[in-house]
């Protein structure tokens, strides 16, 4: 959205119980009852419900660590300790700041939505369609915030009314109650949201396709909380129907797949992405962002160390390189993630991961220090010269045999980056790896800037094919032929030209492990992996099997701790209780 405003909305739950006030601005001393009795006031309130998703979550590293970290796909560069509470489950306790902040900000969103939904019915709008749209947005955003809350924290406090005064007791509600509310909210959202935002220039608002998509995602997750086959099938069916509605009505909903994986995250397509179903906006006008100067810094969090090596310097095409030493933090892929791809037939790897760096200065002659850094022969010092455009660095997922140290460029292969299934202890190599390019931002104000302006796609059409496929595969009497076809749509798109038939699967390939592998190949780095592993009951086992640098994880880590600040404020902390294990 172009502009976001925040006004007093009463005392928020997070503020009441955890010391974080929502009273950011109170124009002219007006009360909430006065401000939110008008169309402009309600519009401001709805805008406020979006703010934390941009300023606190999507574009920031904390939510990335909570949604992609601590899984089978990512580990800290050089096995560093930054963010280890989330990425490695080390020292994850009730006082961890990111856990408290996430709890507070999500409950703030819930309270904005509760306030708006309570008040909007009695407010007159010039345009009734706009009023309906705002009802839909508030319902969508409440469901989206509660999905995050219940998946991260488990059975917690379910609130459907605005918190206006201090509430000093809290009661837990079962996860199923949250999901009942979410699905009800999403039906309201579907009934009220337009295909295009109102006004049309306010890109980033929830629309009808987003509501269908979230309904599919929420229903698929709800399966995990049911024990009987009939109840599981009920929610598989809801998930499949919602996902297929989007797939079968792409023209009406104004969404479609790109022809190639590369186009999905091509920076030129970011601000008008035809595959995106819901995205969090960040403005190219810095002053309009909730957090000026670093609105979206996802682009720095998946980078391998490339500058000050073999003559390379930081530049915009290769992106910010903040890893001046091995202890700096970025997400490096696990060996497991890299080996999920067969790059000979699956172009998603080549389209979304960078292996090659070409010299971006006029010329370079190998120095003794750089030769030592890549364990190359000292005899090359002062002799082998690279010119602008020559391959300077190659960090590859392949195993390279033969005289790989004698090449004119620096080569780090998969056996240099990893010792078996773990990150190498060799500091010369463990900062060099194939780097995810999905969040690249070549439009930074200057090289090495953190001030990215790209929108963050948090739901896209490809996920609908995967949801429909999973639901039809795992539902009793589901249509496995349809499931196979859904997966093959994405795999055929992902095929290296000429390898389309090699990429196609059969019904016999379909099971939960294959589907999780396919989701990893398609959606890695898109804020969804932790949720996928939790809802399928695979979080602990997959981390144990595929991310052996995470050594302290326990089964209870499927939930985060309840923030201690919250427990310290309420009067019934023992009754409410801490989550198991903490």
UniProtKB/TrEMBL annotation:
Stored PROSITE patterns: PROKAR_LIPOPROTEIN
Keyword Signal: yes
InterPro entries: SusD-like_N, SusD_RagB_dom, TPR-like_helical_dom_sf
Major localization listed first in the record, in broad terms: membrane
Pfam hit, one: SusD-like_3
Species: Sphingobacterium arenae
Entry protein name: RagB/SusD family nutrient uptake outer membrane protein
Domain RagB/SusD: start-end pairs: 315-569
Domain SusD-like N-terminal: 84-220
Alphabetical UniProt keywords: Cell outer membrane, Membrane, Signal
Cell compartments where the protein resides: Cell outer membrane
Stated family: Belongs to the SusD family.
């Amino acid at each position: 959205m172009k502009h976001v405003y925040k006004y007093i909305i009463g005392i928020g739950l997070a503020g009441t119980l955890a010391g974080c006030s929502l009273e950011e601005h109170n124009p002219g001393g007006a009360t909430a009852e006065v401000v939110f009795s008008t169309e402009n006031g309600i519009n401001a309130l709805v805008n406020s419900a979006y703010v934390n998703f941009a300023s606190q979550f999507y574009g920031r590293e904390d939510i990335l660590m909570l949604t992609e970290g601590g899984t089978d796909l990512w580990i800290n560069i050089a096995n560093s300790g930054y963010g280890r509470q989330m990425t490695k489950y080390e020292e994850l306790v009730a006082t961890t700041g990111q856990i408290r902040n996430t709890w507070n900000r999500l409950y703030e969103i819930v309270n904005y939505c509760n306030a708006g939904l309570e008040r909007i019915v009695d407010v007159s709008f010039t345009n009734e369609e706009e009023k309906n749209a705002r009802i839909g947005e508030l319902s969508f955003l409440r469901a989206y915030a509660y999905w995050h809350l219940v998946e991260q924290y488990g059975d917690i406090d379910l609130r459907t009314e605005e918190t206006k005064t201090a509430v000093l007791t809290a009661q837990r509600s079962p996860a199923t109650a949250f999901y009942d509310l979410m699905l009800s909210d999403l039906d309201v959202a579907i009934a009220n949201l337009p295909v295009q935002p109102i006004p049309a220039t306010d890109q980033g608002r929830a629309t009808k396709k987003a509501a269908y998509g979230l309904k599919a995602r929420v229903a698929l997750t709800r399966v995990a909380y049911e024990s009987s086959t009939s109840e599981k099938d009920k929610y598989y069916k809801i998930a499949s129907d919602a996902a297929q509605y989007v797939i079968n009505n792409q023209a009406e909903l104004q969404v479609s797949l790109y022809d190639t994986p590369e186009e999905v995250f091509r920076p030129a397509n970011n601000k008008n992405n035809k595959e995106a179903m819901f995205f969090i906006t960040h403005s190219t006008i810095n002053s309009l962002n909730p957090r000026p100067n670093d609105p979206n810094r996802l682009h720095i969090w998946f980078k391998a160390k490339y500058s000050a090596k073999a003559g390379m310097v930081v530049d915009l095409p290769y992106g910010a390189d903040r890893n001046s030493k091995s202890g700096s933090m970025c997400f490096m892929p696990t060996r497991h993630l890299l080996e999920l791809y067969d790059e000979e037939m699956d172009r998603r790897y080549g389209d979304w991961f960078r292996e090659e760096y070409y010299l971006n200065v006029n010329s370079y002659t190998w120095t003794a220090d750089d030769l030592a850094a890549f364990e190359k022969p000292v005899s090359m010092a002062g002799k082998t010269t690279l010119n602008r455009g020559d391959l300077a660095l190659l960090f590859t997922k392949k195993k390279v045999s033969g005289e790989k140290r004698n090449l004119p460029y620096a080569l780090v292969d998969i056996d240099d980056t990893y010792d078996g299934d773990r990150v190498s202890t060799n500091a010369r190599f463990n900062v060099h790896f194939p780097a995810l390019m999905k969040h690249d931002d070549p439009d930074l104000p200057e090289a090495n800037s953190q001030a990215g302006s790209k929108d963050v796609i948090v739901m896209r059409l490809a996920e609908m094919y995967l949801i429909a496929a999973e639901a039809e595969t795992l539902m009793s009497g589901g249509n496995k032929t349809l499931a196979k076809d859904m997966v093959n749509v994405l795999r055929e798109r992902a095929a290296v030209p000429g390898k389309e038939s090699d990429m196609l699967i059969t019904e016999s390939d379909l099971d939960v492990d294959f589907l999780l592998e396919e989701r990893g190949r398609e959606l890695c780095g898109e804020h969804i992996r932790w949720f996928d592993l939790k809802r399928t009951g695979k979080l602990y086992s997959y981390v144990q099997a595929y991310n052996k640098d995470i050594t302290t994880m326990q089964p209870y880590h499927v939930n985060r701790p309840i923030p201690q600040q919250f427990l310290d404020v309420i009067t019934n902390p023992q009754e409410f209780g801490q989550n198991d294990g903490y």
